């Protein structure tokens, strides 16, 4: 098997899901056989509470030939990763380079996990929601937009409310009685807005 590990491993983080890794090729005489390529092993560094629960899954990408760089796609935003590089010949892999740590920046969050509308009264509705399964960063706020829908399915004026990220419910007041409303709801990080979920609900006709 090859004798030495690739040197001078550098990681350039391009965005929240993509990084580029560079390395110096090993001297050909240390390959001790036919150079097939380089393998990059990379894995997410677990936060402490999770470590006991699940095994760290290492991913491997193979770059054929005498490459000196490779792209790592499909990373998770706002995460820490470790990687190392090994050279490969027909017999197997050489030793791993020292582990290199890199971090991906924040991304936009996934949609809130649910939006539930309860307790209709003449002029109010109660909204409850769950935080995104993948915040992909630090949540800064939720954005609620809503508008009335009349009997011919025309949409009325759109109202927008910004809600602090630590809230999980809201009572909307001063609505019209016996009116259907359409709601659009999403979460935000400093990078931008995530995908929204929509819901409809009706205030009651009379007490």
UniProtKB/TrEMBL annotation:
InterPro entries listed in its UniProt record: FN3_dom (IPR003961), FN3_sf (IPR036116), Ig-like_fold (IPR013783), Neural/epithelial_adhesion (IPR051170)
Membrane spanning residue stretches: none
A GO cellular component entry from the record: neuron projection
Residues covered by the Fibronectin type-III domain: 5-107, 111-207
Alphabetical list of CDD domains matching this protein: FN3
Pfam family, one: fn3
Coiled-coil segments: none
Signal sequence residues: none
Keywords: Disulfide bond, Immunoglobulin domain, Repeat
UniProt xrefs under PANTHER family: CTX-RELATED TYPE I TRANSMEMBRANE PROTEIN, NEURAL CELL ADHESION MOLECULE L1-LIKE PROTEIN
Protein name per the record: NRCAM protein
Source lineage: Eukaryota, Metazoa, Chordata, Craniata, Vertebrata
């Amino acid at each position: 098997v090859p004798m030495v590990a690739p040197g001078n491993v550098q990681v350039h983080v391009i965005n929240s899901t993509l990084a580029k890794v560079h390395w110096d090729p090993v001297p050909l005489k240390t390959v001790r056989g036919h150079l097939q390529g380089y393998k990059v092993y990379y894995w997410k560094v677990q936060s402490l509470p999770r470590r006991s629960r699940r095994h760290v899954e290492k991913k491997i990408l193979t770059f054929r030939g005498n490459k000196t760089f490779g792209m790592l796609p499909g990373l998770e935003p706002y995460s820490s990763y470790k990687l190392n590089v090994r050279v490969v010949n027909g017999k197997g892999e050489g030793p791993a380079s020292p582990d290199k740590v890199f971090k991906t920046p924040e991304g936009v969050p996934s949609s809130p996990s649910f939006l539930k509308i309860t307790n209709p009264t003449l002029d109010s509705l109660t909204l409850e929601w769950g935080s995104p399964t993948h915040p992909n960063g630090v949540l800064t706020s939720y954005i609620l937009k809503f508008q009335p829908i009349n009997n011919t399915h025309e949409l009325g004026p759109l109202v927008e409310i910004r809600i602090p990220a630590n809230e999980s419910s809201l009572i909307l007041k001063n609505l019209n009685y016996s009116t259907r409303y359409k709601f659009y709801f999403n979460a935000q990080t400093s990078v931008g807005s995530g995908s929204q979920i929509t819901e409809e609900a009706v205030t009651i006709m009379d007490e």
